[in-house]
Every structure is written in structure tokens, then in C-alpha cells.
Amino acid sequence: MAKKKKDAAPEAQNGTVASQGDKGPYIPALSMADQSKKYDVNTTAEKVRKRDWMIRIIALILLILLLILGIGYCSVSILNKAGRFTVSLVPNEYGIQLAESEDFDHPTLNLSASPVEDMNNITKEWLLNKNGELGDDPVYESFTALDKVWGEHNGTNYLAYTFGVRNSSADEKDVVSYRVSLNLENQYKGADEAVRVMVFRNGVPTIYAKPRTDNGKLEEFAADKSFLEDDVVFEDVRADFQIGEVDRYTVVIWLEGEDPECVNKIMGGEAKFSMHFEVIGGNSSADAG
Q: Which of 51, 154, 183, 224 makes the best surface tag, with the fewest CB within 10 Å?
């Protein structure tokens, strides 16, 4: 009987020979060149993945930076719109209010004065403008007269703002104490070194100035007291604030031309101040009940 001839090994595609075994066709191992190509493909894919991750991380970082810059810009805009002098009162249960009119027809917890743009240096006596030093600015017979004008009454080169704090509680037991502070919120180009802040409380004025930078002593011209701290003009406690009582405050801010530190280097500078009130004690009817 004639022996059957074994089937010839099939010829694989692309010229690669595949041998036929008991369990099917045998595919030979890749050559070194083919293995190198496989690893090249894997390496390239890994690089692509890493590159994609880096792009995502960089995009996320840029987005976060843009958000931070946006928030910062909005904050600066809000501060500038609020003016360079603001007054705020912490909400309280005692009926303590702020107002910029004597009759308190619009009581509030927050007040603000319009900024004075391009403020030039003047001197204390010029605030009265008796000899026309400040042109068309109001003329006052005395600083007492200046203090009695309620609300915003800025001059060309000074800020002046008068407001009141009232205990408007309806309960005779609500006699309170409050803390008041006037703060330097920010400054630019050292403008605060030559600034003067005159604060009237119920008609009594006090002028505050930063001490000389060369010797740390109080300024010799137009100053009664030094700033309490570098960024705090003064702080005080008002005790026994009776029902229906009003404390009137006038704040006047200017650049003192007689100050030795009022020099050209502060040109274009800026200083922003704020005043804060907070009730710190009292005999509240809510507590009594």
C-alpha cells in the first residue's frame, strides 16, 4: 500500500513560513528586529500618555492661576469702589446704629466716603480756607464749624467725613460699651508717612501722625499723638453709652506739606483707612429676660 504523502507546510502570508504541528500551525518567534519594533510602539504609547497627563496638569495649573488672578482683581475693584475711607459696625442686638445724617433717617451698619483723587499736600490751617488757599473749597470760621457739617464734605485736597453712632434701643436697660478703632488698611509708596488723620469725637479733635522714621519720635508739626501701631491709628473703648445717646465723629485726612517726609518720592502714593465699631458689653434686655 502506498504511503500517504504528508501535507506540505502551508505558506503563510507575507512570506513567513508557518509549520504545521500536532496542535495547529506553529508561528516562529519574532526576530530581534521585530521585538525592537514592538518595544518602540510600547515606549511611544507611554510617552503619549505622559505627555497628555502633563498637558492636563499644566492646563489645570493655568486655570487655577487665572481664577486666583480673577478673584484678586474683583477684590481690588470692590475695595477701590468702596472709597479710601470706610466705616463699619459689627451687627449687634442692642440697637447700635450708624448714620451720616443728624436725624438718622437712614441708619445702617456700613458707611463710606468718596475718595479724593490726586490729593496735593496742604497744611493744617489751609483746611479752613480762610485766605482762599484751596480755591473754591468751603470756608470755615473754625475747626468746630468744620466738625459740625454732617456727611461727606471733602475738599479738593483733603477728605472730611462726619457721621454718628446712636444707641437706638427701646429698652432702658440696654446701656452698652463699644470698641472703636481706626486702621490703615493699605498704603502705596509711603504716603502714610506724611499723612495726618484728625478725629473729632463729640467736638474734641485729636491729630494722629506716624512717627519720624529716622528717630521714631512724634512728628513736630500738626500732630498730637503717634499711630498706636504701624497700621492702627488709634483704638478706644466708649463705656456707658446710654439709650438715645449719639456720639458724633468727624474724620479729616490730608497730606501734611510741612512734614519732613512729604517728599517727591511719595508722589502717586495712596493710603486707605477704615473705622470699625463693635459692641463689647451691655445690659441687654435679651439677656435680662
A: 51
**Pairing, β 232-241 against β 19-21:** unpaired
- Measured between alpha carbons, how far is 68 from 184 in angstroms, rounded to an integer? 25
Q: Give, in order, the Cα–Cα distances in Å from 69 to each of 33, 73, 75, 76, 235.
A: 54, 6, 10, 11, 34
DSSP 229: B
Q: How far is CA 103 from the centre of its chain?
A: 32
CB 104 within 8 A of CB 97: yes
Chain segment 144-166, per-residue pLDDT in tens? 999 999 999 999 999 999 999 99
**Alpha-carbon span 232 to 179, nearest angstrom:** 13
Q: Evaluate if pTM is beyond 0.85.
A: no
The conformation of residue 171, written as its DSSP 8-state character, comes to S
**What is the per-residue burial (b if ≥16 Cβ within 10 Å, else e) of 70-80?**
eeeeeeeeeee
The SS3 call for residue 149 is: coil
8 burial (CB, 10 Å; 0-12 / 13-18 / 19+) is exposed
